[in-house]
């Protein structure tokens, strides 16, 4: 067993231990802490496996959609090269946006932890986390059907270097041609359409729409969505596609949680019905 495998066992084992009802009942004040730790492990594993998934789905070899996406942007009057050039010209703000772009998993965990701590009765934390997981999986599925290099192919080398989240074109080409048989050590997201960063920002705004936490997270979410264009190498079309992505993820999370609550209540209902039918 490697050191990484050993760390995996420790993380999963501790998360399973903290999820036990007996542990939570004994330390009720720490329930939000336990739940946040479990969510951290879940998000970490989601991140580890989402990247290989984004590589694996490209083996389907669906037609590249860059021409369609570029035409869509131009029809809306949006020039991603001009926008990137303008953004990069404001060096301090551009550097700050680059740092914000890297906060993807951390802001998700922060929203979950705050929702769980301050809005437990409304299930804000669990609803957000489930919708986030659904969005990641849906993004990988859609990108398999509509693959693209992304707007980075339009940029000169200097501007392209700033698009830290852009699709590594060499990896995409190798996958589509069948030359890549193993995951490389240095990987980058192969997902252009739709933008997961914009999707996450929309999920944050929706989850906290009735919360006093919204003013705290809304600026971060809005700036986070902007970084999809400045550092993600996305077309505007990718960003707009995040709207149906977020809506579908929210619907799925509501459906799954409603079924889970229904399943949890069903034994009580059946038990009550049995008792009611027993003779006195």
Automatic annotation (TrEMBL):
Entries under Pfam families matching the protein: PAP2_3 (PF14378)
GO terms under cellular component: membrane
Domain Inositolphosphotransferase Aur1/Ipt1, residue spans: 68-252
Membrane-traversing stretches: 34-55, 76-97, 128-149, 185-205, 212-229, 235-252
Keywords carried by this UniProt record: Membrane, Transmembrane, Transmembrane helix
Protein name, entry field: Inositolphosphotransferase Aur1/Ipt1 domain-containing protein
């Amino acid at each position: 067993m490697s050191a990484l495998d050993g760390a995996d066992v420790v993380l999963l084992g501790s998360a399973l231990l903290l999820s036990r009802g007996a542990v939570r009942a004994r330390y009720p004040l720490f329930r939000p802490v336990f739940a946040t730790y479990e969510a951290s492990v879940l998000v970490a594993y989601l991140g580890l496996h989402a990247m290989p998934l984004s590589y694996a789905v490209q083996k389907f070899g669906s037609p590249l959609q860059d021409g369609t996406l570029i035409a869509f942007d131009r029809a809306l009057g949006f020039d991603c090269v001009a926008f990137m050039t303008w953004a990069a010209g404001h060096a301090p703000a551009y550097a700050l946006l680059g740092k914000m772009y890297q906060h993807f998993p951390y802001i998700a965990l922060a929203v979950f932890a705050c929702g769980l701590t301050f809005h437990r009765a409304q299930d804000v934390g669990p609803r957000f986390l489930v919708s986030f997981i659904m969005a990641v999986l849906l993004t990988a599925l859609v990108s398999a059907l509509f693959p693209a290099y992304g707007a980075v192919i339009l940029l000169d080398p200097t501007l392209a270097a700033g698009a830290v989240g852009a699709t590594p074109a060499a990896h995409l080409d190798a996958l589509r041609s069948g030359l890549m048989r193993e995951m490389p050590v240095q990987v980058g997201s192969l997902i252009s359409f739709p933008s997961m960063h914009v999707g996450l920002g929309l999920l944050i705004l929706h989850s906290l729409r009735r919360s006093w936490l919204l003013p705290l997270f809304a600026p971060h979410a809005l700036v986070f969505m902007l970084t999809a264009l400045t550092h993600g190498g996305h077309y505007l079309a990718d960003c707009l596609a995040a709207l149906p992505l977020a809506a579908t993820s929210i619907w799925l999370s509501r459906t799954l949680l409603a079924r889970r609550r229904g399943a949890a209540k069903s034994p009580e209902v059946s038990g009550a019905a049995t008792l009611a039918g027993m003779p006195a």
